[in-house]
User: Fold these one by one.
Assistant:
Number 1:
Amino acid sequence: MGMRSVFTFVAGVALAALPLRAAPINYGNYSGVTLNFQNVTEDTSTEVPQAPLFGAPTLVGDSLVFNPVSFGASSSNGTGADITDGTLAMFLQAKPGFGVHSFSLTEAGDYAVAGTGTSATTAQISTTLFIRVLQINGADVVGPSIASNVNLVFTPTGTPATPFGGQYHLGPDTGIGVIWTGTKSVDIDALIAGAGFNPALDHATRVSVNMDNTLLAISESGTVAFIKKKAVEGLVITVPEPASMGLLFLGASVLLGRRRA
């Protein structure tokens, strides 16, 4: 992981050594079977200087596969909290004749909490997806935004269980090399239906996806906490094939108007 910013106090005045953050890392565009993954970009506020966390993806059909090699957080012997936060952003652009009806995200890794201490020693992961539909049937969405925020659900859930899991404490969750997984399926058709469109006629053709992924490790004296994404298929974003029905009813949809009562 990158070097954190360091704060030094001299004669009562705080002098902050704040290296300039580099621009986000842009991995470019990837052409799948039914859609294009456009402007695939990652950014981080915890790694200074900017360093890849997710790494460049590999395209497999209509899936993007990321193999992170340095996306982790660790703390030992009471050195305090270590947090690593990375944001992944992209556009899902349907190819002519197709729509984006749903997509899924899965990620995996391992954690360790061990030693002699209390449940204050913890390893945690949380992932939030921010989704926005930008185009329907090839036309920009006007009026209120069609957007949703959702959280991945992690297993094992951790103890005590939280709504989305992913919190592992010394004691109930003690272990080394324990595998965790996180999953979420997003129904884009349901999202546009909730905004008054008819998924039988209307199809999302451009969708913005932003994912905020945070890892946290906290230790006490005599303990260790560690959590990391897997180096192989640590994160996979999949748009099911066919992303379909095409746009056979595009003309009828335009004649019926953009919004349904």
Number 2:
Amino acid sequence: MLSKRWTKKEENKLKHLYLKTNMPVEEICRILHRTPPAIQIRLKLAGIKKRRFPIRTKHPTKITPALARIHAHICGDGCLYAFREKDCYGPWAKYRKNPNYYRTRYIACYTNTNPELLKEFRQDIKEVFGIHGKKLRNFDIRMNSKRVWQLLKEMGAGNSHEWFIPKSIIQGLPNVKKNWVRAFFDDEAYFNDGGRIRVKCVNKKGLQQITEMLNEFVPCHLLPKRGSYWGNTYCININKKDTPKFFSKIGSLRYQGNKKV
């Protein structure tokens, strides 16, 4: 059955609803009793440009302590990944000629069982990117944003073997470097029986960058000096005598200085 012709009154009403209101296209379709393709074709014939919606995420222009913590958490207990999923929802799904239409999802995820660290991470992404992270299973915070994914990827966040710290953080202000180290150690550090603080990782280049920053606040060294430990791992070591200095200059949200050393 052919659709009825557009009247001048309908066209004027379409222009008003589309240009003067923020009403979604689906709602306009219900009011005018038209399909989404018919609405779009009529708008194109009338020479009306598509709406430009405001960007949902903010793009940070400088490295802040909050952004440094986000980057450190993604390098520590976080991850970046992308996957393709079938796009079978929305008003256009039933009008597509190709039913096997896929779109790519870009995800930045942080996993931790400490509620204080999860709370701080959500506050940081709200401050830096202006978005709310989605909490999953009580210990995952996930951001579904290509812009955030691309920015963190460009800054060096990635898998355990390849992540690195950008120059903007290594050469940044002391408060930025301190917050990066604090966030990473909250994820990865542990205390042994001798009272030392250690961080073990397979990424030797990344640990060398951390050592360079950490030595500005607390004496530390990378072990082993030659070769590697089992599993091709390496370790940053802070001696027992320097542990109080770590808590006073770097701090910890995870231990909050209550760890007996």
Number 3:
Amino acid sequence: MKILYTQSEFDAAKSRDKLPLECICCSKTFHRTKHDIKSALNGTIHNTYECCSKRCGIRHHFRFSSHMITCDQCGKPLKKKESDIKKSKHHFCSHSCSAKYSNAHKTKGTRISKLERWLAEQLVILFPSLEFHFNRKDAINGELDIFIPSLKLAFELNGIFHYEPIYGPEKLSSIQTNDHRKMLACAEHSIELCILDVSSVSYFKPTKVQKFLDIISNIINLRLSRDLPVNLPLSS
């Protein structure tokens, strides 16, 4: 508590007279009754009247109970409350860094990425003469799960997060907006985009996801037979 009154003013004041104090957070002058100040000084009430308002009290508490740590993705310094530090093993300066770290260190919820990796392995075997781009952004300045440049053909594997608000309606809206942007970008670049709903895949197993490989292979074969019937072998 930072007082702005003299001892004589305090002694002369009545119990309900208000005396000036200075907020230790914003330095603003505020007033409290002699009775409350005396109780705070004696420790009989929890409110010590160090701050002029609840907002300043929260800011003051955050300032003196927080620590400087570094973002686990980019190394940028950031300040977090001790209670928040204890809640999580990893800490990030932004949602972008959190997403990048999560994608690079997935140990849970990886069934779709396992599906993508398996499809990538199988497609390269089935179509050795085709060039595949997996999870690259160079075609439309946005990530495409599977893109075949020579055929101007792309595939997106949309899991349950594209259809249900698993992380809330705002996140779902953001994902669906991005999906729509991809469709427009592909159209602008004359890329045929095929979207596969893989939300039914609750766990990865080759026999369970073979149907998606069959769908992709059939579409590729159709394009090959129509556009490039001579030089590129079709899938068996």
